[in-house]
Design a protein that fits this description.
Largest sheet: 5 strands, mixed
Shape: elongated
Number of helices: 11
Strand order of the largest sheet: 3-4-5-7-6
Oligomer: single chain
Length: 409
């Protein structure tokens, strides 16, 4: 799937999952331009090749695989095998310039592929080294050379040296891809950690403001109540006390109102001025998480019904928090299921993700402020929230009523 471009909705664009990954338009253009330049360089050297047509076909296959290496590492690896097979079947001289494409494809297989594709890439590097060695020995040194290889120690040593040279080149490309994947994941983890720390700081500040507001309101209301009760009892015997009490009530209320406005201003200052997200913004959220490494499937059951603004905001925030937790703490090699079950009177939102095997002393899935926030948002719109492990998966369920009468103001 290409971000910002027209593409099939059925294509699962996930980091390391599905046939296609999510790429930005400029990334697709850059990969296509690089493959085109690679093909032009190869065409410039075709005049020195005996079999021009087979070489041209093989070069086109390798260039296509090179263009697809980030969009679909699996297809790119299959294309590399197809090109190499055709190259050997056509008895072309080897190696050629287009064989360098295999190094880039193995790199992306380890860097962007899923767990299975990564191991397939490693196996391809080993098997390719064996096949390349046999091909070079048989076709470049004579078809009867294999017997000489087994009988001549020097030739056998040269074959071993050739095998380990191919394995070093292919294996190094695969290893560098794996290293790039690790570095990228590490950066994402650090960015997520910094963001989490900022969220904690903001939440602590808001808790402090909430406590201050509670103290201001509680103190002021206590004064107002005391003055009102005193004035009610003293109005018969001391009418002037009523005026004094009303003056005190008015002054106290104005001071409290000013303090509350200052505290609310501090809260608003820390909030974004952009419009609140709605259900229509879930597509962008899903694409963003897919491109970050989440294998995500989305399903809608039943007839979709209209939701109020507060309910749409609650659904978006609950989905955002649950999917973010799945990305940070779940098994990203397995699929996360996002289900919207529409009923006559409620929307049942279910987010199910695979649970990593817990280490000693670790919980199966983190709780903390994320679960508390999701539960609070559900309760605020009159819904019911639950979260826990079910058959090896972490399942978050929120039932949002469609009726506005259930919303707690």
């Amino acid at each position: 799937m290409i971000s910002g471009a027209i593409c099939p909705e059925s294509s699962r664009a996930a980091y390391g999952g599905g046939m296609f990954r999510t790429l930005r338009r400029y990334q697709v253009i850059a990969d296509a331009a690089f493959a085109a330049a690679f093909l032009l360089l190869q065409l410039a050297s075709l005049s020195s090749v005996g079999n021009v047509l087979p070489s041209l076909v093989v070069a086109l296959i390798f260039a296509t695989a090179l263009a697809l290496r980030r969009l679909s590492p699996a297809l790119a690896l299959a294309g590399a095998w197809a090109g190499a097979t055709l190259q050997m079947a056509s008895s072309l001289e080897s190696p050629q310039f287009y064989d360098l494409a295999v190094l880039a494809i193995l790199f992306t297989t380890a860097s962007y592929g899923g767990r299975l594709l990564r191991w397939v890439g490693l196996g391809s590097a080993i098997l390719g080294s064996v096949i390349a060695t046999l091909y070079l020995v048989l076709f470049n040194g004579g078809r009867n050379l294999l017997g000489n290889v087994m009988s001549t120690p020097s030739m056998f040593s040269s074959s071993l040296l050739l095998f380990f040279g191919c394995l070093a080149a292919l294996g190094l490309s695969w290893t560098l891809g794996l290293l790039a994947r690790t570095v990228r994941r590490s950066r994402q983890s650090r960015a997520a950690q910094v963001e989490a720390e900022q969220d904690v700081i903001v939440e602590q500040e808001r808790n402090r403001i909430a406590r201050d507001m509670h103290d201001v309101v509680a103190h002021s209301l206590a004064v107002v109540i005391a003055q009102a009760d005193g004035a009610r009892y003293a109005r018969e015997s001391d009418p002037e006390a009523v005026d004094l009490a009303l003056t005190t009530i008015s002054t106290t209320a104005r001071e409290a109102l000013g303090d509350v406005r200052i505290l609310l201003g501090q809260l608003r200052h820390s909030q974004s001025e952009t419009p609140q997200p709605m259900l229509g913004d879930l597509d962008a959220l899903v694409d963003q998480l897919r491109s970050s490494g989440l294998i995500l499937s989305r399903e809608s059951v039943g007839e979709e019904r209209p939701l109020a603004t507060a309910q749409q905001l609650a659904v978006y925030r609950i989905t955002q928090e649950a999917l973010t937790n799945a990305l940070r703490h779940g098994d990203t090699e397995r699929e996360v299921r996002l289900i919207f079950a529409w009923k006559a009177d409620a929307l049942r939102l279910v987010i199910s993700s695979a649970v990593n095997a817990p280490r000693a002393g670790d919980e199966a899935h983190p709780g903390g402020h994320g679960l508390a926030g999701m539960r609070e948002r559900t309760v605020l719109v009159g819904g019911v929230f639950s979260a826990g492990v079910d058959e090896g998966r972490w399942v978050v369920t929120a039932t949002i009523p469609l009726s506005l009468e259930a919303v707690r103001l």
